[in-house]
From TrEMBL:
A Pfam family annotated for this UniProt entry: Lactamase_B_2
Gene3D superfamilies assigned: Ribonuclease Z/Hydroxyacylglutathione hydrolase-like (3.60.15.10)
EC numbers on record: 3.1.-.-
Species whose genome carries this gene: Gimesia aquarii
Domain of life: Bacteria
UniProt entry keywords in alphabetical sequence: Hydrolase
SUPFAM superfamilies reported in the protein's UniProt record: Metallo-hydrolase/oxidoreductase (SSF56281)
Single annotated GO MF: 3'-tRNA processing endoribonuclease activity
Organism phylogeny: Bacteria, Pseudomonadati, Planctomycetota, Planctomycetia, Planctomycetales
Keyword Transmembrane helix assigned: no
Keyword Plastid assigned: no
Any coiled-coil regions, as ranges: none
UniProt domain Metallo-beta-lactamase: residue ranges: 29-211
Entry protein name: Ribonuclease BN
Length: 244
């Protein structure tokens, strides 16, 4: 299984990172639709897509407005967009309002049931997270591998059981430890608690993503700090491909 990190930044794009979107091309599974969603057509391998939204903040949804041409030009047969009903309603009402973007692509919006069967024989579950306005984390278990995607959340230790034992954990790490006070204020995470979560949950690999766009250098979150706690930690970069 291979996942492509189409966008690894938070809040707004910078020269190095676009905002959140992850894709498993061979299965047509996508998580979030940030500014990096414009890259999806270049990675299409299926005629049907399942998009799972964590929440409705603009940096995670704006890319849904980028997919009109691929749908009109018959590059896909169907696109199902899953999320909490209130968040889907906000997307339909506001992002696709007549004044902002007057043509709604032919998406099928689906309120998340308790579990979703996904391509490849996998089962997807979700968990509410602590974040202003609310967010949800995802876990998918296939017969021979598993992954979890957790972003826009505070207090990683609260979802220890949910991510227990996954082969791949993709988790936000917006701030370095020296900015932990800002993490608490904004409902985000910083380096040490995320690495401790990976260690305590016995995951296979940790990818850090949703990085503060004001920090565009090579090490915006203190990767060596994380690796000292959980050695198999990687700082996510746009267009990075990860096997799991």
């Amino acid at each position: 299984m291979r996942i492509v990190l189409l966008g690894t930044g938070g809040y707004h794009p910078n020269e190095r990172r676009h905002t959140a979107c992850l894709m498993i091309p061979e299965l047509g599974i996508i998580f979030d639709a940030g500014t990096s969603f414009f890259r999806v057509p270049h990675h299409l391998q299926t005629r049907n897509l399942q998009i799972f939204m964590t929440h409705a903040h603009l940096d995670h949804i704006v890319g849904l407005s980028f997919f009109l041409v691929p749908m009109l030009s018959d590059q896909v047969d169907s696109v199902k967009v899953y999320g909490e009903e209130s968040k889907l309603a906000a997307i339909r009402t506001h992002l696709f309002s007549d004044e902002i973007f007057p043509v709604l692509p032919d998406y099928e919006f689906i309120s998340l049931p308790e579990t979703v069967e996904v391509a490849g024989g996998g089962t997807l579950r979700h968990l509410p997270l602590e974040h202003p306005g609310g967010s949800i984390g995802y876990r998918v278990d296939w017969p021979d591998c598993s992954m979890a995607y957790v972003t826009d959340t505070a207090h990683p230790e609260q979802h220890l059981e949910f991510v227990q034992g996954v082969d791949l954990l993709i988790h936000e790490c917006y701030f370095p430890d020296e900015m932990s006070e800002w993490a608490d204020k904004t409902g985000h995470t910083h380096t040490t608690p995320v690495a401790e979560l990976a260690r305590d949950a016995h995951v296979g690999k940790l990818i850090l993503t949703h990085i503060d766009p004001q920090c565009a250098g090579d090490d915006p979150i203190g990767i060596k700090v994380a690796q000292k706690i959980f050695p198999n930690t990687i700082l996510g970069e746009d267009l990075m491909e990860i096997d799991f």
